[in-house]
Every structure is written in C-alpha cells, then in structure tokens.
Amino acid sequence: MAFDQRYGTRRYINFPPGGDDKHPGKRQAWLEKEHSTTFGHWLRNKVESELSISNESVSETVKWISHGARRIVNKYDVYDINGYTFRTKIRDGRIHQNSGVCVQATEMHISKEVVTYGKNFYYGVLREIWVLDYHIKKIPLFMCDWVDSRNGVKQDGLGYTLVELNRLGHKDDPFILASQARQVFYVKDQLDKKMSIVLMTPPKNYRDLYDDINEDFSTVIFPHNDNILPPVDPRDLGNESRDDYFRQDCVCKERGLIMMSSSNSYSSNQNRCDLCYCGLPARIRTSNTLDNPGRRFRVCHKSSSLSSGPKCSFWEWIDHEPVGMKIKIQKEVDVVKTDLQNCMSTVEDLRKEVHVIRGKLYNVIIVLVIFFVFYLMKN
C-alpha cells in the first residue's frame, strides 16, 4: 500500500509545460519518477502547512515520518521477519542458505498509447539489512542484488523458474521493505551451470511478537502441523509436590522415607531406611560376583535359608556404582600405562641404537674419503 493511500494524503503534480500529449505513456512514466523523487520534500512542506493551521490535523506518525529518518542507520547481518530468518550474502557462506529473496511487485508497462500495470516476481540475493529509525517507528529495509527480470529470468518446460544470478538489473531500485520479502533458495541447474532453479521456502511456524511492521505478514499456522504441546504426565511439568518420589514399599515409621529426585538420583546411606518390606531390620552384605565384586547391598533377614517362616525377597544395592568395576577399570588403566611405558622405553632404545649406527656410518664415510684423497694424490 502506498503512503498516500495508507495515511489519506493526496498529491497533485503539474505536468511540465510542452508535454507530449500524443504519448501518454511517457507522461505517466515522468509522473511516477517525479512522485518518487520529490514526495519526501512535498510531505514535509504539507505537514508544516497543516500544523500551522491546527496541531491536531496531522497524526503523530505522519509528523515524525515527515521529518525523515535518523542519519545513523543500523545494519544487521541476520534478521527474523515473516516467519523467515534472513542472512546477508557475506554471512550466508554456510550449510544453510538464507540470503535468497523474492518479492511480488506491481510493474508498469509503457507503450506509445497505453499504460498497463501487472504483478511480477523479482528474485535476488540479500546484500545488506538496514533499519531506519523514525524516532517512534523503526522500518527494516533489505538492500538486494536483483536479477534482471527481462533477460535473467525464464521458465523451463516443467514450470520451474530459472534465474541467472550473475545477470543483475534494477540497480537504481535495490531496496524493499523487509515485510514484503519472501525467502527462496537457489539450486544449480545441472543442464545449464549459469542458471539456478528457484525453490520457495515455507515460513516457519512461529509468530514474531517483536515485528510491528505489518501484522498481515504474520506466519500462517498450517493445519497439518502440530502446534500445541503434546499430552504430558503432570508430574513431569515441575510439580512441587514430592509425593511422586516417595517409596511405597518401605514401612519404616521411625526414620525418614527414601526420596529420589531427578536432579540427584542417588541419596546418601544415612537417609536410607534400614527396614525391608516386612518391617524387620535389613542386613548389609558384600557381593562376591564377577559382575559386581565388592559392591554392598541390603537384604532381609528372612532371605537366609537358616531363618524360619516365609521367605522375603527384599534386597537393594547400597553403592551407587560397583566397587569391583572401578577396580577392574583401574587395573586396565594401569596395564595401559605399563604398556605405554614399555613402548617409550623401546623407542628410547631404538633411538640410542640409531645414534650409534649413525656414528659408525659417519666414521666409515670419513675413512672412505681419506682413502679416496690418497688415491688421487698417487695418481
């Protein structure tokens, strides 16, 4: 939407004297160019004249915009808008490609007698990201290298759009509003290395809450994607109640119950209950198995074959890790250290032998040189 349509301002431009009435297309082209180059100056004068009559006749937004943006422009390498993450061409030399830009704009076609308008897609590469500061409103702009829409864009037989990124055009109009940009990425055509295939990038499923440029460009939520949190057990949502961690198989009432937290999966032995299922004190034993040698565990008195009455199957490990496993790993580490020391000593012995052999070869070479000199002197 044009500025005059959005804020209700109209501008009347007088055509230059001696205009070509036979070619209205040229008159319209001159009008568009004149409107583009002088609109800022006209708007400022128009606002000042309106404010001289009444301070409430012009909105605050139009007041600040009529003064123009700050002279200091902030530049960025990455910008998130419309559900896309854009990166400049210099920053984009990575695995992912985020510098492809596409915009749909209205194009004016001029002939001798008729002026027609049509929508056309323009493809390019993002070069710089500017953010203009109008004091009360910030407007991001994309500076792009646009492909020549006449000679650098074509369609193949399958309907794909092909662009020649090295053939640039529209150099007088490199800027677009960031809210108008759509993201594309380019794939090299295997049949023609100069051309690249244009593929549209779907926007990601999030809404940019910081984007106050235009709410109409917010990301569309696709119905086939899951955009809500899946059902989760409430105990996994950070419930402050600790009842979910209490053991129900211990009947000890005098000492505290066993409590295991996800942040500390092993509690100390002092806080553990020494009673088993049946309420009797448990005994501490040491495992002598090959898998867990030396690892302590707690077992009920009734588990012994010497005890009378029904048996109890209660038992649990006390040590967090098998002590025997640590010993076994330590032994393997010691063996590796010993092997490394042996290898180092062997290398040192070989180095000494090489040094001795080098000295012997040096002596042999000296003797041969002396014999050769005597031979030359005799002849």
From TrEMBL:
Signal peptide (from-to): none
Entries under PROSITE patterns matching the protein: ZF_GRF
GO molecular function: zinc ion binding
Pfam families the UniProt entry points to: DUF4216, Zn_ribbon_GRF
InterPro entries in UniProt: DUF4216, Znf_GRF
Regions crossing the membrane: 361-377
Keyword Transmembrane helix tagged: yes
Keywords, in A-Z order: Membrane, Metal-binding, Transmembrane, Transmembrane helix, Zinc, Zinc-finger
Keyword S-adenosyl-L-methionine: no
Ranges for domain GRF-type: 276-321
Name listed for the protein in its UniProt record: GRF-type domain-containing protein
Species of the source: Heracleum sosnowskyi
UniProt lineage: Eukaryota, Viridiplantae, Streptophyta, Embryophyta, Tracheophyta
